[in-house]
Amino acid sequence: MSFPILSLTIWLPILAGFLIIALGDGPARKLAAATSILTLLVSLPLYFGFDPTTAAMQFTESVAWLPGFNINYDLGVDGISMPLIILTTIINVIVVISAWEVIKDRPAMYLGSFSIMTGLMIGVFSALDAILFYIFFEATLIPMFLIIGIWGGPRRVYATVKFFLYTFLGSVFMLIALIYMYKQGGSFSILSMHELALNKDQQFWIFLAFLAAFAVKIPMWPVHTWLPDAHVEAPTAGSAVLAAIMLKMGGYGFLRFSLPVTPDASSFMDTFMIAISLIAVVYIGFVALAQRDMKKLIAYSSISHMGFVTLGIFIAFRLIAKGDDAGVALGLEGAIVQMISHGFISAAMFLCVGVMYDRIHSREIADYGGVINTMPIFAAFMVFFAMANAGLPGTSGFVGEFMVILASFKTNFWIAFLAASTLILGAAYTLWMVKRVIMGPIGNDKVAALTDINPREFWMLAILAIFVLLIGVWPNVIGSVMHASIENLVQHISTPKY
Amino acid sequence: MDNLQIATPEIFLLAATCAVLVVGLFTKATSNTVYWLSQLTLVITLMMSISQLGSDTMTGFSGAYTVDSLSASLKTWLLVVAIGIFLYSRDYVGARKIQRSEYFVLGLFAVSGMMIMVSATHMLTVYLGLELLALSQYAMVALHRDNGRAAEAAMKYFVLGALASGMLLYGMSMIYGASGSLDLNVISDILAGNGDVMSTERTIGARFGLTFLIVGIAFKLGAVPFHMWVPDVYEGAPTSVTMFISTAPKIAAFAMLIRLLVGGLETLNADWQQMLAIMAALSVVVGNLIAIAQTNIKRMLAYSTISHVGFLLLGIVGATNDGYSAAMFYAITYAFTTLAAFGVLLAISREGFEAEELSDLAGLGKRNTLLATVMMLAMISLAGVPPAVGFYAKLSVLQAAVNAGFTWLAILAVIMSVIGAFYYLRIIKLMFFDDPVDTTDVRPAGDVTAGLAVNGFAVIALGIAPGFIMGACIAAFA
Q1: Which residues fall within 8 angstroms of residue A450, CB to CB, at 6 or more apart?
Q2: What is the mean pLDDT of chain A?
Q3: In a domain, A282, yes or no
Q4: Is the confidence at residue A413, as pLDDT, over 80?
């Protein structure tokens, strides 16, 4: 067995997180910074050492864990999960920077929780055993529950309990489905579940169980209502992690479980899935337009963007029916690029709101106006990320949306038409917000007293901006690593299981 | 000689208990001598019980008493839990002016009752153990004799408990009538059709008896619809006694269930599976739903117990060996986790103050982070969230239920566990998100703190490496 990079990237932040909590508030910040940078460095070989020519799992580790239950500690990554792991480790660094001087109440617990959560999320993306996946998937709820509940806004208790129960309800059905498949196939290995022969009814029910788990997590309309509450009440870094990574677990779940395990049921349900994805894109876009709270607006914009991800995933079956394998791959890759890109952009948007919130302690759009006059550098960043959120070409926001719309065009004009309406809606709600908050004359005395961002905030936003631009102008930076895996997935889902 | 040898731990325990009783007469009410002697007794008994681990099945007293891998490991865990119970209750009992030597002596008697239940393979031994346990518990509930609620709880417990014992005895007599034996191994043989031919009438008689047995067992476990005593007794009893009732006896009741239903009446499984399935479904629903409405934490934990009994039964309804081991794992880990929860409650209570209402936990995270963390781990585990051990317990019973074709029951159970998660989360919320109402320092004795820390750590560590106990559970039914 080679060097266990994956285990190290999972357990380093988790153990360091406990250490940070144990050592108390004194060395917490430095320790957290060191951990996050070290974790990022440890995770980099996953990208640079990745072999893009194969769809097989790489960096695999396997240890028998509970032989009686046939549960193994199986880890490995392919082109779908690896970019998400890198995203997680990058966002972790940003989180530490963002919390540096902002969190005054129990910083050790705060930073420790984030560190532990980072490890758990990497575990979600690298687990190849279904029970191990489930454990990581559920365990991430605990730190997030505490983060929102302890450091959140006024309605934090309501928001965090709703967040926990909603996601917990979704995932227990998945647990039953996993147990059922174990009964059928005698293994909890995800890869062997992919090969498990299931008839139509079995697939249908298993698909629904997965849907309950992942639709809540990503979230899809109409089970999205926990997200605006959680986002609004969470502390800034909590919102950023929630939007940037936790939502991606839902999308990843669709790609890792729903599609390969129940391809026929996914195909059978695709119209339904496409329909609710489009509702998310269009209806939630309008909902975002009506928001007065900036965080809520970005939260709704996240749901709308995640609608693109599910659209890109489920449009695949329409294209398979047409025999257009290239189109299928385009849609799926678009979905993944959209996930990664949204990870950077939404984190950046939440951090921008956080920067203003730290100064004025309000998230209401109406309390701002003319911020550009007092915070010109910040305004530049905010406008840039807003543009990226609206899907401006040259930024990462454009790439994923464009790929998904292109794939939609190959199936049906009206699907593509509705999907493309997001380019207008997204521009409308984001830019309108920017107009009211950033542009214009100075709105009130508080805005007049604002000071521009300090170097810490500058670098925090600058790092994210670099990645947004990098993916925007050179999408192949993530595209190249996932081709083989996506092709393999396309092939797998185009063959019926019965 | 062989007969006596297999029962050495029990014989030693009983003899030592009598000695402790006598010592108790001559020590001052304030001294801890009885406590330390009781702990010493338990530790020595534990050593003896550990030495029985891994030995072959041995039967003695004409088949009435058996030592096998099931009884050896259950006894071991029982004793470990009992040691924890005594440790956590020491200061509570001392501060309450409860007759402390009686408390520990009755506790020791109850432990010997439980050990007998675990090893009993004869209906009379089962009954003997059960009554030894039950009578000690009735007295323990009533120990706080000036407290009206405790007296009421004891009365209720005694009347209903006696009724249940009566049911159990009646069921045993019916089965004796049908099979002509009280020895569970013999009954098993006869019902399976070896020996005399079982006539239809006799089978009906056995079924009739089975129904009454199940009533008795369900009462002792606290399964719906025989759960009425649980909340009242939990609330009324002194917290240390509540802790006693809610932890170790569940392991013993599980053993009794296995001995009677699996050891004796496994051929009638089609009959008892249905009954247990209904009770399991009702228990998870009623327990979880009513727990939400509770403001008294002891009542809340009582309903939580009821729901967990439902989960435990989920493992047994399938009538498979995997399921029995899953239920065994559930019983053991449940006892551990609840022990930690009650241990924290006892640590917060002090002289003249009972931590009973949910609001008493408010802000515990700020008052004593360690205790709050232990409590949080216990709640996470009871809610069944990984990586705490409660998750594996739930996973294994759900798996057993699904494998046996009770998928509907498994789905019902997981939905209810989400509802259950709400009231466990509420405790975490109170401890960590709210500000303390009562800002008195919470500073339990050093050994209690250490015990709680180990207990809390075990809840997580067993979750990450459950193979240790799971292996023993699988071996018990191999």
Answers
A1: A359, A360, A371, A374, A375
A2: 87
A3: yes
A4: yes
Contact B233, B225 (CB under 8 A): no
DSSP secondary structure letters along B346-404? HHH-BTTB---BGGGGTTHHHH-HHHHHHHHHHHHHHHT-TTSHHHHHHHHHHHHHHHT
- pLDDT at residue B120 greater than cutoff 80: yes
pLDDT at residue A291 is higher than 90: no
CA distance A85 to chain B (A): 21
From the list B395, B396, B433, the residue facing A157 with the nearest CB is B433
**Pair A481, A420 in one domain:** yes
pLDDT at B169: 93
Residues A229/A163, Cβ–Cβ less than 8 Å = yes
Q: What is the mean pLDDT of residues B230-249?
A: 90
Domain of residue A241 covers 1-247
Which member of A138, A146, A183 has the closest CB to residue B403? A183
φ and ψ of B116, to 5 deg? -65, -40
Whether B69 has a pLDDT exceeding 90, the answer reads: no
Q: Are residue A239 and residue A357 in the same domain, yes or no? A: no
In a domain, A228, yes or no: yes
- Contact list, B395 vs chain A (CB under 8 Å): 69, 131, 175, 179
ipTM above 0.85, yes or no: no
Domain co-membership, A240 together with A285: no
Are A394 and A320 in the same domain? yes
Compute the nearest-CA separation of B238 from chain A (Å).
Answer: 32
Per-residue confidence (pLDDT) for residue A125, from 0 to 100: 92
**d(C-alpha A251, C-alpha A337), whole Å:** 11
Paired tokens of B382: 């009871």
Residues A273 and A189 in one domain: no
Task: Determine the Cα–Cα distance for residues B325 and B143; give it in Å rounded to an integer.
Answer: 36
Q: What confidence category does residue B1 fall into, taking pLDDT thresholds of 50, 70 and 90? A: very low
pLDDT digits (tens, 9 = 90+) for B156-205: 999 999 999 999 999 999 999 888 888 888 888 888 776 666 677 788 88
Contacting residues of B for A150, CB less than 8 Å apart: 432-433
* pLDDT exceeds cutoff 50 at A338: yes
Best CA proximity match to A133, nearest among B463, B420, B387: B387
Q: What are the tens digits of pLDDT across the range A85-144?
A: 999 999 989 888 888 877 777 888 888 889 999 999 999 999 999 989 998 998 888 888
Query: Cβ of A383 under 8 Å from any chain B Cβ?
Result: no
How many whole angstroms separate alpha carbon B315 and alpha carbon B319? 8
- Whether the Cβ atoms of residue A359 and residue A451 lie closer than 8 Å to each other: yes
Residue A154 near residue A361 (C-beta atoms within 8 A): no
| A237 and A363 share one domain | no
Examine the domain organization and report whether A176 and A283 are in the same domain: no
Question: For residue A261, is it within any domain?
Answer: no
Q: Is residue A257 part of a domain?
A: no
CA distances from A179 to A153, A250, B396 (A): 38, 20, 9
Positions of E strands within A91-247:
none
Sequence ranges of the domains in chain B: 1-157+223-257, 267-478
Residue A65 touches chain B, beta carbons under 8 Å: yes
Query: What's the pLDDT at B16?
Result: 93
How many alpha carbons fall within 13 Å on the CB side of residue B473?
31
Cα A356 to Cα B415: distance, rounded to the nearest angstrom: 41
Residue B390, burial from CB neighbour count under 10 angstroms (0-12, 13-18, 19+): buried
Residue B407 to residue A176, Cβ atoms within 8 A: yes
Query: Which of A189, A212, A247 is at the close of a domain?
Result: A247
- Overall number of domains in chain A: 2
Interface of A with B in 89-148 (CB under 8 A): 131, 134-135, 138-139, 141-142, 145-146
A210 with A138, same domain? yes
